[in-house]
Design a protein that fits this description.
heterodimer, A: 112 residues, 6-stranded mixed β-sheet, 4-stranded antiparallel β-sheet, globular, B: mainly beta, 7-stranded mixed β-sheet
Chain lengths: 112, 113
């Protein structure tokens, strides 16, 4: 069965420091991986996706994600965190059909 | 104007009442989805539709029904609301192709008393 796990409920980081939000997945076949962000009182917004090609994917707002096939991971990263990055982040996997499986979400707090 | 809109944004109702949540989109996408979000559970799929004539159940469809009135409109109904249906509900759309990202509405916060 397809699944995605976000092992951390919350990540705390100081402004200006690098941040990492972790995601691991389990799929049969080629993985199609996504990151979304949810700000308070808003719907989810697409950040980036991995389909094929380079293992480092660049997305919106300075975020990037590293695909690691051997570790079945797709961690979200940013070199220098901003207070405005504080939000709820969701990792998701495409199932090869037309559905998407979402992780439980990781809340990121960036402290000034 | 927002590409995906949902009405109402907030709703408080009583157990046993029938309610409808509406979703409209201007993206021209064929695929539309309804999810519910609960703390610590992420998003769970209720129903999805590939076009007006194609409706499919998701993982948690019991107690819900949907109607795809047009390509741009996809409504979710709770026939007889119960308290454990209290949640944040999102509509989303997706362009043709399984590799495309989804576009989400702002959500409807539903409280069933």
């Amino acid at each position: 069965a397809q699944s995605v796990a976000q092992p951390e409920d919350q990540v705390n980081v100081a402004e200006g420091n690098p941040l990492t939000v972790k995601c691991t997945y389990s799929v049969s076949g080629n993985p199609y991986l996504f990151w979304y962000v949810q700000y308070p009182n808003r719907g989810l917004q697409f950040l980036l996706k991995y389909i094929t090609g380079d293992n480092l994917v660049k997305g919106s707002y300075g975020f990037e994600a590293e695909f690691n096939k051997s570790q079945t991971s797709f961690h979200l990263k940013k070199p220098s965190a901003l207070v405005s990055d504080s939000a709820l982040y969701f990792c998701a996997v495409g199932t090869g059909g037309f559905k998407t499986i979402f992780g439980a979400g990781t809340r990121l707090f960036v402290k000034a | 104007d927002a590409d995906v809109t949902q009405t109402p944004r907030n709703r408080i109702t009583k157990t046993g009442k029938r309610i409808m949540l509406e979703c409209s989109q201007t993206k021209g996408h064929d695929r539309m989805y309804w999810y519910r979000q609960d703390p610590g559970l992420g998003l769970r799929l209720i129903y999805y539709s590939f076009d007006v004539k194609d409706i499919n159940k998701g993982e948690i469809s019991d107690g819900y029904s949907v109607s795809r009135q047009a390509q741009a409109k996809f409504s979710l109904s709770l026939e007889s609301a119960i308290p454990n249906q209290t949640a944040l509900y999102f509509c989303a759309t997706r362009g043709t192709g399984q590799l495309n990202e989804q576009f989400f509405g702002p959500g409807t916060r539903l409280t069933v008393l």
